[in-house]
Specification:
Elements lengths: L9 H57 L2 H13 L3 E8 L4 E4 L24 E10 L5 E10 L1 H52 L14 H45 L6 H29 L6
Antiparallel strand pairs: 1-2, 1-4, 3-4
Protein name: histidine kinase
Catalytic activity: ATP + protein L-histidine = ADP + protein N-phospho-L-histidine
EC number: 2.7.13.3
């Protein structure tokens, strides 16, 4: 025995397709927006690092010349408090770290002109920027290195992604429900009208007309259904008229043959032929009566 699955209504199918369309649009717009915001935030982090490097190098040149480490320590303490800055350091011209956000690294010697060994491994390392520290006369005192921290950016992007997923689910649910309601309002009455008309046709009522509620595709379908029932009405009316005429003709033939058979003076051969004609006329009359009874079961007028 063939198993039949659960039937899905047209309204439900339309709702699902509409929901998928909304999901595609939201995902497309959301992904492009997400990528664009991430690029903007990364650019902002880099610009902020460049601005910090420009400001620090100007101050560091004076403080290095003055030989006051406390001012540098205060400056790097402020840099460490900034959540967008991972680590920062000043390396003098001899390759020695003279200031660092991590005080344990002060005094370490590193390769000149390279940031290798200056920064420890960070959880969310960002871009590394460097700027030379020069005197007013242009003499090189060292380099300022800064590594930006992208943890805040990543945290913001995670929250943004969660928000976008929530918005997607909410929009998907709202879109499916809205499409379901609209499709049911649009399709329910025309489909119910066609189903009701089909039941009338199945019971032989060809006089039933489907109401045309709107001038759209469903309205055209209702008009086509009414046109079909009109053709069927004319067909059955023709059948009824034809069977009535056949009934009259068969009754006339039967009456004439029975009357002729009752007349005397016929030989045996003629009587046999007349009897056969009479029997055939009776059978034709019975068939015509059944056809007439069958055609009368159909209602073709209001």
């Amino acid at each position: 025995m063939k198993k039949t699955g659960r039937k899905i209504s047209i309204a439900t199918k339309i709702s699902i397709y509409f929901g998928l369309l909304i999901s595609f649009l939201i995902i497309t717009v959301g992904c492009s927006t997400y990528i664009r915001i991430q690029q903007i935030m990364e650019l902002q982090i880099k610009e902020k690092g460049e601005a910090v490097a420009s400001a620090v190098t100007a101050l560091a040149a004076e403080w290095l010349q003055a030989g006051d480490p406390q001012l540098l320590n205060k400056l790097f303490s402020d840099l460490k408090a900034n959540e967008d800055i991972g680590e920062a350091a000043i390396v003098n011209s001899g390759g020695k770290i003279v200031a660092h956000t991590n005080t344990l690294l002060i005094g370490r010697t590193v390769s000149e002109g390279s940031s290798e060994g200056i920064f420890q491994k960070s959880v969310s390392p960002g871009p590394v920027l460097s700027a030379p520290v020069r005197t007013a006369e242009g003499s090189l005192l060292g380099y300022f290195y800064i590594q930006m921290d992208q943890e805040r950016t990543k945290r913001y992007m995670r929250n943004l992604a969660l928000t976008m997923v929530f918005v997607l689910l909410a929009a998907l649910y709202a879109g499916i429900m809205l499409a379901h309601i609209i499709s049911k309002r649009v399709l329910r009455l025309p489909i119910n009208d066609l189903m009701e008309a089909t039941r009338h046709i199945a019971t032989g009522n060809f006089a039933y007309k489907v109401p045309v509620r709107k001038q759209d595709e469903l309205g055209n379908l209702a008009q086509a259904f009414n046109t079909m029932t009109a053709y069927l009405t004319n067909l059955f009316r023709t059948v009824q008229l034809s069977t009535m005429e056949m009934a009259k003709s068969s009754q006339l033939i039967l009456a004439r043959t029975e009357s002729y058979c009752s007349t005397a003076g016929k030989d045996q051969k003629e009587m046999t032929e007349l009897t056969e004609i009479t029997n055939a006329a009776r059978r034709l009359a019975r068939v015509v009566d059944r056809l007439n009874s069958l055609s009368l079961q159909f209602k073709i007028t209001n």
